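Researcher: Quick one. two chains, 779 residues in total.
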Amino acid sequence: MEKKKVRIVHYINQFFAGIGGEEKADVPPGVIEKPVGPGMALQGALKDEGEIVATVYCGDSYFGDNLEKAQEEVVELIRKYNPDVVIAGPAFNAGRYGTACGAVAKAVTEKLGIPVISGMYPENPGYEMYRQYMYCVKTGASAATLRQAVGPIVKLALKAGRGEEIGTPEEEGYMPKGIRKSYFHTERGAKRAVDMLVAKLRGEPFKTELPMPVFDRVPPAPPVADLSKAVIALVTSGGIVPKGNPDRIEASSASKYGKYSLCNIDSATPDKFESCHGGYDRTYANENPNRVLPVDVMRELEKEGVIGKLHDYFYATVGNGTSVANAKKFANAIGQELKEAGVHAIIVPST
Amino acid sequence: MKLTLGYFHIKDVQFGPKTEVKDGVLYVNADEVVSKILEDNRLCKARVELARPGEKVRIIPVKDVVEPRYKVEGPGNVFPGFLGKVVTVGSGKTHVLKGVAVVTCGQIVAFQEGIIDMSGPGADYTPFSKTNNVVLVMDPKPGLEAHEHEAAVRLAGLKIASYLAEATKDMKPDEEKEYEFLPLPEALAKYPDLPKVAYVYMLQSQGLLHDTYVYGVDAKKILPSLISPTEVMDGAIVSGNCVSACDKNSTYVHQNNPIIEELYARHGKDFNFIGIVITNENVTLADKERSSDYAAKLIEMLGPDGVIISEEGFGNPDTDLMMNCAKVARKGIKVVLVTDEYAGQDGASQSLADAVPEADAVVTAGNANEVVTLPPMEKVIGYPEAANVIAGGWEGSLRPDGSIVTEIQAITGSTNELGFHTLTAKGY
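Model:
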């Protein structure tokens, strides 16, 4: 039986669509119902196995200036052609173009559930920002390297378009998406550990199953100039919440945080507060929630004039097993609110 | 120290008028089990249920899993410090009911207990879907304090595990296996040409449902120490924890520590297995520094060429793991780590809370944040509504049809960091 031809929509910018350079970067999304520009090279490599049924283009400035709107417009154009897979770019080292390709990948993945293949220079910010949403082939910095990128992009597009399982970055030749996925091995972990140790002792090659993560380093903020005039807020990952956990913050792997009033509250007493944290022995926090959320001490400092004021609200979540992505999201939202509320500094009691 | 394990291969478990092992079947006198449990007046109600591999049965919330063992020769009994006198164990002969597990279950103590499914997709994730389980469902006296509640159900599990295996004390095992552990000078003399290997065995010790006991001593209060692998097989290490049940070492996993088994399997061939250092995972920085310094020092005194370090838990203990790794590796010793990951439900976040460059050889037991749907079961032993509050679940995890949507974090033993199971993860 003949294999079904893979239907492909190709996303490119105004330049590669032949509309124009920087002066045309503000053109809104449009469609050309055939391969255009780099799409010609892709179609050549696809032969009869796949077909670029439409090329969707958008100006890089238009996309950057109207991110959400442009994403939506591009997705709606792509949807009409009912593709099996979308190819975005390659964007080489063009930052705005790469970012647009990545944003298209995110929107297509989330809204259409269709795989996206792209190609970028590793330092293109679009790769770092959106790598989890696409299989991104490594290219050179300039469009002169298109010829080398076509083969791997087409290979991945056909595989993904046919719904075949895509292997690891090393197996398939794309840059890491940064996604960890569980699977059942044929050997138990203890045996793999002993095998790895023997290889290491013999000086034979071995492969770690978990390369060490690279951490964000946050430079500390400058000290508060005059504490006696400062508004201080309490923000905790120790899970202190109003009794009954009204927002149902999870005991582990939290998906949300809560914002709770401290108006007219001089102490975090056990009749009003408790811990919803699943990662430590809560007995002592429940006995006296001030141990994690020191409202009592903050009020004393306020009375003594050591600090200007305790902020009227505190924020709480659970740090236990909570992903860094969620923690970042919470921190950005909480930080924004605190800034708008005129808070000068926060204390983050951990557990 | 020389210990013989006498295995009885049990293929089924049934209720019967007398607790006995006959033709590979364990018969359990439920009334006798219940009255033994209720000797402890902290518990007011108990019943026994059986759950076999392949049955449409769910057990929730699970606290501990214990393998029935009983000492028939040599000093002491299993679980020293809990049952009988505190006597050094690890020599003589111990009977084992292979294929059976005692599972303790009952009202929730805190948020952190586990799920065992005997069939369906959940069964793949827990090693205890393959054992014939004698489930003890126990309720505490009203108002019993949480630590006391945990201690009472823990003790009941140990007691019943010993009681079940005692039924074989006058019988001949189906199979025997001998484990010998030599004093250091003899061990070194025996295989002078092989590289020397040791094991750093990290024990969770962060508080209620995060505790481990060594000869009855709370591991928070120990300095790192040496232990014979045969003592571990006799239950010298007992679990008091099931927080995020995926990566907590139930007592069963300690009794059958797979790293010890795999080290023995290649001992005398590829290396010389010379010792185990146990250490804890306390919550303060000073404790972490002290314990990791001390563990690394004990390792240096043993003088191995290579070391395996296993973690228990995640987040805060990642720091202990990395301190142990760096301090051992900086003595010029080759190190392999066993851990698991919390990379978010989408797998896109970094997996660990701490890292050092020396951690270049790591075995992972999978991403505990991954979400799985556990279909409804015909029978649920315990309290299914616990699914909404246990670590790994959320409000609404238990759906009206009885299915449970949860992170595999809630499944007992799914990402065990002794490498007891086969789950792992790779990067895409």
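Chain B touches chain A through 87 residues (CB under 8 Å).
Researcher: Thanks, that's what I needed.
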